[in-house]
Structures are given as C-alpha cells and as structure tokens.
Amino acid sequence: MHEAPLQFAGARPAPASAAAPGRLERFGLWLRDHQREVRALQWAMVALYLPLLILPVLLPLPDATARIWSNLTLFAQFLFWGIWWPGVLVSVLLFGRLWCGLLCPEGALSAAASRRGKGRAIPRWMKWPGWSFALFAGVTIYGQMISIYDDPRAALLILGLSSGSAVLVGWLYGREKRVWCRFLCPVNGVFGLLAKLAPMHYRVDARAWDACPPSRAREMRFNCEPMVPVRTMDSASPCHMCGRCAGFRDAVRLEPRAPGSEVLRSAGSGADSLMVIAGLIGLGSAAFWWETAPWLGPLSRALGAAVEAPWALFGRGMTLGEGAALLLTFGLIALSLSAAVALSLALAARLDGRSGMFHRLALALLPLSAAGLIVGLSQQTVARLAASGLPLDTRWVWTVLLLLGAGWSLRLAAAMVRRRPALGAVVPAIGVPLAVWAAVIWA
Ligand code: SF4
Predict the structure, then answer these.
(1) What is the pLDDT of residue 147?
(2) Is 368 inside a domain boundary?
(3) Ligand 1: which atom is nearest the Cα of residue 244?
(4) What's the whole-number mean pLDDT along residues 163-191?
(5) Of 180, 294, 305, 312, which has the maximum CB count within 10 A?
(6) Cα(380)–Cα(377) distance, integer angstroms
C-alpha cells in the first residue's frame, strides 16, 4: 500500500469505547454478531448464482418472439447482466466491498473450500501484483471475443472457470482464508479502487488498539478472511466489510466518511494507475463501445472472407475477419484512450512539479471511470428491455451521470494540484473519454 498515514475527515481521536455507537457502527457490530446469518445469505446467493449460470445453457435458444417475462433464458440473462452486475458496481461505490464480504457467491465458495481444504502455504507466484490487471484484461477481452453477454455457453465458460478456480485455490491454499479473492479474483483490483470512493469504511484507532489489555484482546479473536493487516489498515480497498473485526480491541468501527476523502489522501501506485487508465478507461470503454465503431463492417470484410472462426476463439457465428476486426478495434480504442489520458496526466504531473503526482491524479479519475462503467453496464439493462418491447431513452440520464463523474474527478484533481496550468493539463484526461462516450451515446 502506498497511502499516507491515517487522517480521516471527522475522525474522533478518543477510543471507540468512549462514545455511544452510531447507527453505522451498530450495523458493523451486528454483522460481527450474526455471522451465521451472513453465511446463510451467502449460500442463498450461491443457490441463485448457479442456476442463473447453468440453466440458460441447458434450455433451447430463445426465438425472435421471446421476451424477458416469457423466456427463462432471457430472464436469467436480464437478471444477471442487466441487474446483478450493474447493481454490484453501484453497491461497491455506496458501501465499499460489502458485496465481496456478504454476498459474492464465488468468495463464499472459495472460503467454504478453504475451511475444509489442504491449507497449503500461498505460493509466491500468486502474490504477483500484476495479476489484478492481467486477469481483468484477459476476462474483459476474451469475454467480448466469445460474446459473454449474449451466449450462455460463453458466460458459463468464463464464469464457470473463474468460480471453479476460486474453489480450487480455496481448497489448496490458506486455511479459512479468501486467497482467491485477495490475489486472483479478476475484479479484485477494480473493486479495490472503486471502494476508495465509498462513503463508509472500517476505521482503525491504532492508539486504542495498542491500549487494549492483551487479556481482553484474547477474548475478542476474529478471522479476517481476505487477510487484511487490520491494525494498520488505512484504506477500504482490501477490506470486504464483513464486520468480523468490528469492535476489536475497542478500536475498529464502521464509520461514515466524506466520499472521495480516501482518494485525496492516497499516494496511488503504478498498479493503481495502470488499472484506472488502461483498465477502467481504456479496456472498459473498448468493451462497451467497440461494436459502435463505424469502421467495423468495412474492416471485417477487408480482413477476411466468410471463414467461420472456432467457437472457443470468437464465439457464436463470427468469421475470422470479424474476429480480427473486433480485436483491432478493441485494441485501437483501448490504446488511444489510455495514451491520451496518460499523456495528459504526465504533462499535468510535470507542470505541478511534485513527484508522485501522476499516480495521485490517476486516482482522481476514479469517479469518471465509475460513471463510464455504470453507463456501459446499464447498456445491457436498456438493450435487453428494448429487445423485449420496453424501449427506454436513457441518453440524458447517462449524460448527466457522466457529467457528474467528470465534475467530481475535476474537483478531486483541483484539490490535488498546486498550480493552475497543471489542472489545465488534467482537463483533456477527463474531456477525451467524456467526449468519446458522449459521442457514442448521442450518435
Ligand atoms: S478488515 Fe477484514 S475482518 Fe475487518 S471488516 Fe474488513 S474484511 Fe472483515
């Protein structure tokens, strides 16, 4: 971690025991005391997740007259891609990684396997910090290649592989720990970054922690499944918000905080900047907008005759030319947007004159990135409703959301830089993705 020392807006210096617990703090304590109910909730999510993933593969493909409310496959896809995924993303922005700790079926399966597994030591290769970006990029690109949103077999292949690996890793490594979630989950990096914007977190009072008598601490043991070093935890990024450590040593409490306050005091890192610029903005934009590229058709025809590509390579009914055009378009959007943003931030950092500003400014783009992801994912919701005869014109809603994200990013950047020209150089890093997304929405 590269964050500055703990310094929260509104932080109370007194030990946690000195004040009556607020509503949020009580919720954290309630979670701690109701882990049995939390586990039941997690199994309920597993029971929902598996049929949503498997049933559409077993059922016949929907015909042109099928609708969300009359066809189980379409209903499952709508629920999964149109409600579930956008909902998860919004929940991370609002509540931190509560989804991971309380509801994620993959995490629950991995943790359950770890409780009964071999408990081996975690291998060094697994701790490579580049996994977050590499796996996110791999899943994003391959998911588009085999049409993960539309082909139930593609969804089963990718999510099934992910869930199967989560169980295997849980069974092999770590005892009662979420080794998969901590090191290999493809959305770990994304969720960790978005959680920095959340208006709540578990705050640790290190003085109260140290002041707690060892005898009392021994009575209050807990197991942090994602292996967070709780005493020194100064970021919501790794915390799954499970509540197990709430009240520990009278030093840990769930508290509100100013949205984005963690971003302002974070130093950022190369891995964070890579994920924001190349992952959320570059690959994220490419995943949602590549199909709208005006050159896609001519490029497909120019690149190859109607030779059908293998399903495992380019999914249902795609020719090799179409597949190659997809990859080229995808790469072009991702690289050009990432390069424009990175150059703009590099110039801003140089104009500001302080070391580390590039990584800090990259974090300032999180609100805009989050807005782009929500707009992109909600495209699925709108498209599926429209295909069932329920068209919704959400262009203004999307535009306002993107503008709000851009405004928030600009405010964060303005609070970080000390020279006006540096802020001017940040404007293209916000304006270029915004202009591209707005053009796609309105054109
Ligand atoms: S630090 Fe660990 S135990 Fe505490 S709430 Fe976060 S995930 Fe749970």
Answers:
(1) 87
(2) yes
(3) 3
(4) 96
(5) 180
(6) 6
**Total residues belonging to the chain:** 443
| 3-state percent breakdown (helix, strand, coil) of the chain, nearest 5 | 70, 5, 30
Q: What number does the ligand 1 atom closest to the CA of 230 have?
A: 1
- Smallest CA-to-CA distance from 202 within 36, 31, 416 is with 31
Probe residue for ligand 1, chosen from 205, 224, 234 as the CB with the greatest number of ligand atoms within 8 Å: 224
Mean pLDDT of 314-343: 89
Gap from CA of 153 to ligand 1 centroid (Å): 35
List the domain range (segments joined by +) for residue 382.
Answer: 280-442
369 neighbors 280 (Cβ within 8 angstroms): yes
Q: Is residue 86 part of a domain?
A: yes
Looking at the fold, whether 114 and 84 belong to one and the same domain comes out as yes
Q: Ligand 1, from 221, 241, 252: best to mutate by most atoms within 8 Å of Cβ? A: 241
Confidence (pLDDT) at 220: 85
Among 201, 230, 234, which is best to mutate for testing ligand 1, by the most ligand atoms less than 8 A from CB? 230
Contact between 384 and 81 under an 8 Å Cβ cutoff? The reply is: yes
Contacts of 236 (CB under 8 A, 6+ apart): 96, 97, 195, 196, 198, 201, 202, 262
Pocket of ligand 1 (CB under 6 A): 101, 202, 222, 224, 226, 228, 230, 233, 239-245
Closest of 259, 225, 262 to residue 245, by C-alpha = 225
Q: Do residue 175 and residue 137 come from a single domain?
A: yes
pLDDT digits (tens, 9 = 90+) for 248-302: 999 999 999 999 999 999 999 999 999 999 999 999 999 988 888 888 888 888 8
CA of 249 relative to ligand 1 center, distance in Å = 14
